[in-house]
Amino acid sequence: xxxxxGGIPPAEAGPHGFRFLFRTDRGVIDRAxxxxxxxxxAVIGALAELGWVxxxxxxxxGLEQPPLAVLGAYLYLLAFSxxxxxxLVCEYNLSAKRFAARGQPRALAGILPLSLLCGGAFAWVxxxxxxxxxxxxxxxxxxAVAAVVVWNIVALGIRAPR
Length: 162
Hints:
single chain; mainly alpha; 6 helices; disordered N terminus
């Protein structure tokens, strides 16, 4: 029997289902639901970043590194990059629902993922710039990303609805 919700099984289509929370930006959610979705995403992202920190030395390979370790590090980097993009899309969808519930444009949800990607790219390129980019700009980029994270948490997870 077809589902009344356009083919989405009822368990996934409800207000706390995976598909509703992370695969679409339609609908609205409350603060508690936003926290229940954001915290696991942040933990997964932090654990993935920790994994990258642990395997990153193998990417700076030379003849002293075992070839399988270098291959494993690059495979992890590939999976990490793809997983990070999926994670940021999930966070966008979750935050878009919360912004909509607050009566604000859903597009504001894109500021956090964009700032995290730009900050991460800048952190990657800064040490490779060979001094052409001043070191103080790295601190400025970290502060800017931190400000966006704090704004997002306050706007969606702390501030009372209008």
